Amino acid sequence: MNAKTKWLIFAVFVAVAGTFIFLALNRKVPAQHFTAKVERGDINDVVEATGTINAVITVQVGSQVSGTIAKLNVDFNSRVHRGEVVALIDPALFQGALLQAAADLENAKANLASAKANVEKVKASAVQAKADYDRAVQLTKSNIFSQQQLDLAKANYDAAKATVDGALANVTQAEAGVRQKDAAVTVAQTNLNYTVIRSPIDGTVVARNVDVGQTVAASLQAPTIFTIAQDLSKMWVYAKTDESDVGNIKIGKPVTFKVDAFPKDTFQGVVSQVRMNPTTILSVVTYDTIIEFVNPDLKLFPGMTAYVTIPVDAVRNVIKLPNTALRYKPSMTTEEIVAVYKQYGIEGPEEKQGADDPPPPTGPVTLSTTRAPKRETAVVWKRHADNTMEPVKISLGITDHAYTEVTAILKGGLKEGDEVIIRSVTGNVPAPGGTPR
Questions:
Q1: Which residues pair with 70 in a beta bridge?
Q2: N or C terminus of the chain with fewer C-beta within 10 Å?
Q3: Alpha-carbon span 429 to 437, nearest angstrom
């Protein structure tokens, strides 16, 4: 065998081997289906939300006057009663202002007394002037007084009357001054009283914002010294609920919630109100749902985060499917899916989105879970023992976001224990020692 023949045989061998490897690498295998069984059980449809625990009534105790804090009688967690003195502001400046106002009042009263005495004086002068005028009239008639003397007496009498009117006006002015100074005394006394800070309600101090020696300025707004919660044995949860959920929340519904401080405990409450004031954050509209609960042991504090579960509906012992089966769509073209649907008597393809299951969020979730509009029907794909698929059209009921109730089988057959496809994987067989293509 010459060299040329050997090279020809080698080339044929390489070609055959390459063809074999190519076919092995590109040999398709049947799709691998991941399935879940159709189950029978209970479904609880609930609204889940996050909220904050608050006292029913919280009062911010402030100061209406500016000054230096001289004394604090209570601290954090102190129990206080209505009218109890909780803080004192240095009263020195206000006591001085009150003394000055009181002195001004006494001065005004003295001016009033002087004005009244002057009235009596000018009234006496007016009486004497009138008598002189009357005598002048009689004497003039007897030709004893001249007309000039009569006119002089008349002028004196008119001047005396005007003086009386002026003195009466001075009395009125002095009386107004007394009232003004009396009001100034009242204001000064009120400001002095405001240096004593009292609790407006019975409750517990949950916040103290100042220390002794600190100056508070009340020129623009009243500074907050304490925050007092009225009754921590009865509290509220302010839960942020999505706009798509508020229609399912009914007043009086029992509610359960958990807090991070007691992860093993479940607390009970009742929906008391759904407030109509909307809050919009990043185009998400939420409403405050108020949940009342009792806190006899004072375990829960204001400001704690509550994870609320509000029951909406429940069914027992029904056929249910995982929501992943409702979202599954085979890797076929739309025309192929339509052909399979027609083969099994189904009118048209269903959308990929599952009932009541929104796409998974891409960022941190801080508000209640947003629901997609619920579909009444869907198509799931049942896997047979020979790995073939059959579309089954079903009618949907309520969902708990993991499983959905099957209320009726519209096309096809589906029963408890059947396997429905939730995901499929297709691929090629890898070459020995190689990687799959």
A1: none
A2: N
A3: 8
